[in-house]
Amino acid sequence: MPQYDVGIIGGGILGLATAMEMTSRYDGLSVLVIEKEAGVARHQTGHNSGVIHSGLYYRPGSRKAVMAVRGAEQMVGFAQAHGIAHERCGKVVVATRESQVAALEDLERRGKANGVPGIEALGPGALREREPHATGVRALHVPSTGIVDFVGVAERFRELTEGQGGEVRFGVEVTGLRAVADGVRVEMGEETISVGQVVNCGGLFADRIARLAGSTPSVQIVPFRGEYYELKPAARRLVVNLIYPVPDPAFPFLGVHFTRRVDGRVEAGPNAVLALRREGYRWRDVSWRDTVETVRYPGFLRLASRYWRVGLGEIYRSASKRAFTRALQALVPEVQASDLVRAGSGVRAQALERDGSLADDFRLVEDERMIHVLNAPSPGATASISIGQAITDMAAGWFGGAATKEDYRI
Question: Which among 79, 110, 143 is the end of a domain?
Answer without folding.
Answer: 143
